[in-house]
Amino acid sequence: MAPHLTMKKIIAFGGSTSQSSINKQLATYAAHLFSNAEVEVLDLNDYPLPLFSVDLEKEGIPQAAHDFYAKIGSADVLVVSLAEHNGAYSAAFKNLLDWTSRIQSKNFQNKPMLLMATSPGARGGASVMELAQKRFPYQGAEIVSTFTLPNFYDHLIDGVLSDSYHAELVECVAKFS
């Protein structure tokens, strides 16, 4: 008889509000590489928040921030792919981090994370990755593996990742076993 395998809950999202977010596409692709997993892909558009300020915080933390924080808490593994806007996080993602950090400074709740970035350019979001790799551990992310995909449109075509990058991403996912 085969041993009982515990199903993992994967929460995946792209750090962008773009309807055609390449980072959401990459996060979705990567999340579905996990075996024996229930995958839930979040859309940042489902968590509308006013721009964070201490004045607004005095009125209370918006429900959308609590909802996102709860989703993170429900995960066994986080799969996050960051959009790079002017070398940093998108404004919407940074705002979401700001609000959820007011619920708990370790807003990633010590969850294991596959941290990724992609862009249409040759650097593949390298600047935002560097920023996140330094910052996220302070916010409770246990970064198990990282992956960057340069030249997105040359390597993820019709939902299929090119062979060399697919193999690299499979190796990243295997680190969670």
TrEMBL record:
Boundaries of every NADPH-dependent FMN reductase-like domain copy: 9-147
Q: Name one GO molecular function term.
A: oxidoreductase activity
Which InterPro entries would you find in this protein's record? Answer: Flavoprotein-like_sf, FMN_Rdtase-like_dom, NAD(P)H-dep_reductase
Offer a single GO CC term for the protein.
Answer: cytosol
Q: Which organism is it from?
A: Flavobacterium fontis
Question: What protein name does the entry list?
Answer: NAD(P)H-dependent FMN reductase
Judging by the UniProt lineage, the source's domain of life is Bacteria
